[in-house]
Design a protein that fits this description.
The complex is a heterodimer. By secondary structure, chain A is α+β, with helices and mostly antiparallel strands. Chain A folds into two domains: about 5-85 and about 115-135, no CATH class; about 140-290, Immunoglobulin-like (Sandwich), CATH 2.60.40.420. Chain A is about 35% helix and about 20% strand. Chain A has helices at about 5-30, 55-90, 105-135, 170-175, 275-290; strands spanning about 140-150, 150-155, 165, 200, 205-215, 220, 225-230, 235-240, 250-255, 265-275. In chain A, the strands form three sheets. Chain A has a five-stranded mixed sheet with strand order 3-2-1-5-8, with no helix packed on it. Chain B has one domain (about 30-530): Up-down Bundle (Cytochrome C Oxidase, Chain A). Chain B has helices at about 20-25, 30-55, 70-105, 110-130, 155-185, 195-230, 240-260, 260-275, 285-295, 310-340, 350-370, 375-380, 385-415, 420-445, 460-490; strands spanning about 415, 495. Chain B has a two-stranded antiparallel sheet. The longest helix of chain B is centred in the first third of the chain and has 36 residues, at about 70-105. The radius of gyration of chain B is 23 Å and the shape is globular. The chains are: A alpha+beta, B mainly alpha. At the A-B interface, helix 2, helix 3 and strand 7 of A face helix 3, helix 9, helix 10, helix 11 and helix 12 of B.
């Protein structure tokens, strides 16, 4: 089969599949659902991975789609052969078995070799992305993330040194999620995905997280960043992300490792701001930490001052 | 052939013992096989009931029915019961029934150990399930038993460890029995390469069991020591390493996955040729493929732990070794397809289940390849995508194969043909509902829903509702299976010795009458070329 025709076939299949998916969604997204149209808490369309807002999340999405379409291609061939056999070689339609067909070294070598080649095509780009994901050098802001049952602690380093707070499930979600609460989750904005105090980070900046835990294993996950890593007691894991400038906003995720009773109720919210806004936020936080210090003023009396504010590196 | 192995009446051992003693002191491989299968069916419904609680709570957002702790107990025990109580005992039961019949042996090699290995299981599961009534409640930290979380359990903790030990001992003894039987008791002339493919699959599975069940036993013993004897194997504060548990656990856990699928491969390799009226294509390469999967299963455990923080070299190694598994697995799928190619297919219930297996296991295989891609795995890991993946390989994979095996061989066991219409209805409804149940879970996972949560953001409502409807449907439909089996035991149209007369059943098991006499092959049968799977 020539490649162009195969491409057309895949395209046609994709179109009809998306039409079918659209129909299903239209049926499901019926009137009365408070979230009509909004089928995912992130940039996902509700049935596929989110594209996300970092270069890495884009690369992951592309890899995912590459492997998905390769699988679809193989499925068309393999399922096609199976369905053809099921239709064509029926005893009820007089098919007679060819009992001499028991073995063919040639064919078996072919269908062992071709998958190996296909796998290499998947492995090479995947390995390239792994190299990038694991490169945590030259980060511009580090935040220590500590998991607790069932909340997150964010301790800022570098220029934001001293900012240190906990982030827990927002009150309205917490009321609504109690057994027999009588509160309709659909009436709660960002049900289970909002916190009292989100992590705040600047866009266009390589942010490195240092993850650990004070009790059991947790996992920090923001699908839109393509970022997930376990927080393990006694270990410090590293993770980095860099949100594309212009993509400032609120991004939501959840703990991704079973951590006990309220595992489902320790969301992660990241508020991505422009570097300037982030700088302002840092000043505000520091002022709140030490009311004696006027925002943006020179460091006050050394005896009570937090670490000097170094803003130079936060461009 | 039919009268070559008459039942002897001159010895009281040749008849089943009367009353309960027949089962308590059973040494007959058929009785023990039956007990394993009945036990497995009961556990399938127990674990299924837990799954119904899970799907009922997830039917809509908000907590309506159960507390999060009870929800976590349900997910944890659903997994333990289904893996160790339903799937594994079902395969051991099938091995007990079919290995001696397929190799022409009078019984398993070690009948008393066989009895012991079965009777450990009811005790193990009584202990496990009674944890629901002890202070602190049942285990709620996931079937993977990761510390430190599992150490927060109450009185259930030592009971879990003891139950796991019992299950492990039972599995190891079952595996030893299979190996010793196959290695020593094949009828003259049946070389290893002439042995039926189901026996081959089980032989490799038995070696995997012997290799990894002691590893699990070691892991849980270290947990026990950490909890009660102040050791620090996994306690970071004492210089230990919580990640080490995950490594040890998955060194057991990944081969365990294949322990639950290789016998299914064997079953499907028996059923498809029969109803294609054609020998299994590339039978020898099937054996090599199974052995390669068995070997590879020992060097891929790290793919369960990509998000745990792993050196880059380890990520690359585990990604590539995992992808390699697709090659022998692909060979198997291609060979099954080639077996049907230019065959003469008919669609009796066992064949329907085998074809269902073929399609839906392959879907699970595709998502498996996707999961191997490390960068993408960071998004999939611990999401509902993973739940969809392993349920596709385990439910329409392993469980469909088990049901196919029962529909294939039960006329030989009972001497009766079951209600074929009922069995076909069971198949079609199961197939529809299993896809309604698990396919939307791919979407949920990709859209960002984590697994093991009792409640979720409202954006995930619709697919969860669809999945729950599929779950209730699938659960209800399994009652048809129980009905078909019970009816078949009680009576029905008599089955011939060959059972599938119009098809092409191959193997020694079809040379004895139906029902199989209580003692069969008391003298080794002659192996006719027609009873060998490959030429």
């Amino acid at each position: 089969m020539n490649v162009k025709r195969f491409g057309e076939m895949v395209g046609r299949f994709a179109r009809s599949a998306s039409v079918a998916a659209g129909l299903v969604c239209a049926v499901l997204g019926r009137a009365g659902t408070a979230v009509a149209g909004d089928r995912s808490p992130n940039t996902s369309n509700g049935y596929n991975l989110p594209m996300g807002v970092t270069d890495i999340s884009h690369e992951i999405y592309d890899l995912h789609m590459l492997v998905f379409w390769i699988c679809v291609g193989i499925a068309v061939v393999v399922f096609g052969a199976m369905i053809f056999s099921l239709l064509k070689f029926r005893k009820s339609q007089g098919a007679v078995a060819d009992t001499s067909m028991v073995h063919s070294t040639k064919v078996e070598i072919v269908w062992t070799t071709i998958p190996v080649i296909i796998l290499v095509f998947m492995a090479v780009p995947a390995a390239e992305t792994i190299l990038k994901m694991e490169d945590t050098r030259n980060s511009e802001l580090s935040i220590r993330v500590t998991g607790y049952q069932w909340k997150w602690q964010y301790q800022y380093m570098n220029d934001a040194e001293g900012i240190n707070y906990f982030s827990t499930l927002a009150q309205d979600s917490n009321f609504a999620r109690q057994l027999h609460s009588g509160i309709d989750p659909k009436s709660v904005p960002n049900y289970l995905l909002s916190v009292d105090k989100p992590m705040v980070v600047p866009s266009g900046t390589k942010v490195r997280l240092l993850l650990t835990s004070m009790d059991v294993i947790h996992a920090w996950w923001i699908p839109d960043f393509g970022a997930k890593r376990d927080a393990i007691p006694g270990f410090i894991n590293e993770l980095w992300f860099k949100v594309t400038p212009g993509k400032e906003g609120i991004y939501r995720g959840q703990c991704a490792a079973l951590c006990g009773r309220d595992h489902g109720f320790m969301p992660i919210v990241v508020d991505v701001r422009t570097p300037d806004d982030f700088k302002k936020w840092v000043e505000e936080q520091k002022a709140a930490l030490n009311p004696a210090v006027v925002p943006a003023a020179a460091p006050a009396a050394p005896a009570v001052a937090p670490e000097p504010v170094k803003t130079a590196r936060l461009n | 052939m039919a009268n070559a192995h008459p039942i002897a009446h001159d010895d009281h051992h040749d008849q089943p013992a009367p009353g309960i003693g027949r089962w308590l002191f059973a040494t007959n491989h058929k009785d023990i096989g039956t007990m394993y299968l009945v036990f497995s069916l009961i556990m399938f419904f127990v674990g299924g009931a837990m799954a119904m609680v899970i799907r009922a709570e997830l039917f809509q957002p908000g907590l309506q029915l159960v507390d999060p702790v009870l929800f976590n107990q349900m997910t944890t025990n659903h997994a333990l019961v289904m893996i160790f109580g339903a799937v594994m005992p079902a395969f051991v039961g099938l091995a007990n029934w079919m290995v001696p019949l397929q190799i022409g042996a009078p019984d398993m090699a070690l009948p008393r150990m066989n009895n012991f290995s079965f009777w450990l299981l009811p005790f193990a599961f009584t202990i496990l399930l009674s944890t629901f009534f002890v202070p602190g409640g049942a285990i709620a930290g996931g079937w993977t038993m990761y510390p430190p979380l599992v150490l927060q359990s109450g009185d259930a903790f030592p009971m879990l460890i003891f139950a796991v030990h019992l299950m492990g001992i039972s599995s190891i003894m079952g595996a030893i029995n299979v190996i010793v039987t196959i290695m020593n008791m094949r009828t003259p002339g049946m070389t290893l390469l002439k042995m039926p493919i189901f026996c081959w699959a089980w032989l490799i599975t038995a070696y995997l069991l012997i290799a990894v069940m002691p590893v699990l036993a070691g892991a849980v013993t270290m947990l026990l020591m950490d909890h009660f004897f102040k050791t620090s194997f996994f306690n970071a504060a004492g210089g230990g390493d919580p990640l080490m548990f995950e490594h040890v656990f998955w060194f057991f856990g990944h081969p365990e996955v294949y322990i639950m699928i290789l016998p299914a491969f064997g079953i499907v390799s028996e059923i498809i040729p029969t109803f294609s009226r054609k020998p299994l294509f590339g039978a020898t390469s099937m054996i090599y493929a199974t052995a390669s999967i068995g070997f590879l299963s020992f060097i891929v455990w790290g793919h369960h732990m990509f998000a745990d923080g792993m050196p880059m070299a380890a990520q690359l190694f585990f990604m590539m070794s995992t992808m390699l598994i697709a090659v022998p697995t692909g060979v198997k799928v291609f060979n099954w397809t080639a077996t049907m190619w230019r065959g003469s297919l008919s669609f009796e219930p066992p064949m329907l289940f085998a074809i269902g297996f073929l399609f839906m296991f392959t879907i699970g295989g595709f998502s498996g390849v996707m999961l191997a891609i490390v960068p993408a795995d960071f998004q999939y890991q611990n999401s509902y995508f993973v739940v969809a993946h392993f349920h596709y390989v385990l439910v329409p994979g392993a469980v469909f194969a088990i049901m196919g095996a029962v529909y294939y061989w039960i006329p030989k066991w009972t001497g009766n043909m079951y209600n074929v219409t009922l069995a076909k209805t069971h198949f079609w409804l199961s197939t529809i509902f299993v896809n309604v149940l698990f396919f939307p879970q791919h979407f949920l996972g990709l859209a960002g829903m984590p697994r093991r949560v009792p409640d979720y953001a409202v954006q995930f409502s619709d697919w969860n509702m669809v999945s729950s409807i599929g779950g209730f449907g699938f659960g209800l439909v399994q009652i048809l299976f129980a009905v078909a089996v019970i009816q078949c035991i009680r009576g029905g149209k008599k089955a011939s010795a060959e059972v599938w007369d119009g098809a092409r059943p191959v193997g020694l098991e079809w040379s004895i009458p139906s029902p199989a006499p209580y003692h069969s092959f008391t003298t080794p049968p002659e192996l006719h070329p027609a009873e060998v799977h490959r030429s």
